[in-house]
Amino acid sequence: MRLFSKRALATIMLILPLAGAFAEQNMIEDFEFQPEKRWQFIGDSVMGGVSTGQVEFARENGKSYARMTGRVSTANNGGFVQFRMDLPAPLPKDAAGVRLIARGNEQRYFVHLRTSGTVLPWQYYQAGFEVSGVWAEIRLPFTGFNASGRLLRVSPRPESVKSVGIVAFGRDHDAEIEVREVSYY
């Protein structure tokens, strides 16, 4: 018994490469080529905090990823470590949200977005997510991001997003998160 006709198989063979091309168009970062030139580690020591950490870039089973580790401490008015990237181009107006492929130590982490409207260092939009020890897709709609203060819009406009950060934030804990892809959908 044949499952596919030759015509159906030919159609599938034409669509598959297009699906891959569509995914690549939405990619912000896959950590393949010199990610250390685009991503920077930032800790709360910039404001007197005592959290510590680092970001490193690794490869496993043919896939590259970023790995952030550290100790988040709320002592001395601190409480975060992050790695952040400035976007090379604006996102399209019709983008619905941020998509990650991530895993980690079963803790809650956050994506912080800075926009053309977040002019002060402590302004951002934040959405939380959970990770486990296995790679998983995480989708964070822009409507689910919360502004860090009342002077900002309720949610970010995709075309105004200037940077994306992966953040361990807000409580004393050990951070260990790995991210293989950052894209939009």
Automatic annotation (TrEMBL):
InterPro entries: Galactose-bd-like_sf, NADH-UbQ_OxRdtase-assoc_prot30, NDUFAF1. Residues 1-23 form the signal peptide. Coiled coil: none annotated. Residues 35-171 form the NADH:ubiquinone oxidoreductase intermediate-associated protein domain. Keywords: Signal. Belongs to the CIA30 family. This is Complex I intermediate-associated protein 30 (CIA30). It comes from Roseovarius marisflavi.
